[in-house]
Amino acid sequence: MGVKVALVTGAAAGIGAAICRRLARDGIAVGVLDILIDDAAMVASEIVAAGGKAIPLKANITDRAQVGAALSKLRETFGPVTIVVNNAGITGFVPFAELTDAQWDKMMEVNLKGTFIVTQLALPDMKAAAWGRIVNISSSSAQSGAPLMAHYSASKGAVIALTKTLARELGPLGITCNNIPPRFVMNTAMSEKSFAEGKISRQASIDAGPIRRQGEPEDIAGACAWLVSEESGYVTGQTIGVNGGRYI
User: Fold this and answer.
1) Under 8 Å between Cβ of 24 and 17
2) CATH fold of 5-232, please?
3) Is 152 in the active site?
C-alpha cells in the first residue's frame, strides 16, 4: 500500500483540524471535510505549507450525494480512502420535557446518520484494500449521561453501539473500528459555546478529573493517530477515553 489516505469530517477547526494536522504529520494524505469550506481550505493550506498532503472538501454529511462527490474528489487526488475519522457533529442543551421532535431528529440526523453515510460510502475502498481504520468521535456524555442533553447523549451512545457492531462485522475484512469519547475539550467551538452560555464551568470541568488540566484538541488527535496506525491492528470495538481520567 502506498501513501494512506484519510477522510476527516468536521475538520475545519478544533478537534477535527488537530486530527488532520497530526495525520498529515504522520505521512497520511488528508481530506479536510467540512460544511465551512473556507475554514477547511485554511487548514488544508496550513498542512501543505508544512510539507503535508491535504485538500479541502465541502459536504453536509447528512447528504449522501455531497459526501459521495467529496470522496470521489479525494480519491482522484490521492487514491483510495482507507481511513475515516467521523468527527463532525452538533450539540445542544434543552430540558428533556421541552425537547421537540425537530430537535431530536436533527441531532440524530447529523451525529448518527451522518456517521453512517460517510462510513458506508468509504467502505468499498477499505474492503478492496483488505485494510481499513474507522475512528468515531463520540462523547463522554454517552458514558455518564448529561442533563439537558438527552438528544445529544443518546446520539453519541448510538455511535458507540455502531462502533462495536462495525468492529464485529468488518473485522474479518481487515478493518478496525474504534471510538474516542472526549470530555469537554477546550478551544473548540462546541465547548467554548457551552462555557459562554454557562452550561458548564471551565474550572469545574478541569477539577473533575485526576489530571488537573484542560483537554486540548491535540490530546484527541494523538489517540486518533494511534488508532489509525498499523500498530493498532489488534484493537477494535474499543472506547478509548481521552478525558483526563474523569471516567475510570
Assistant:
1) no
2) Rossmann fold (3.40.50)
3) yes
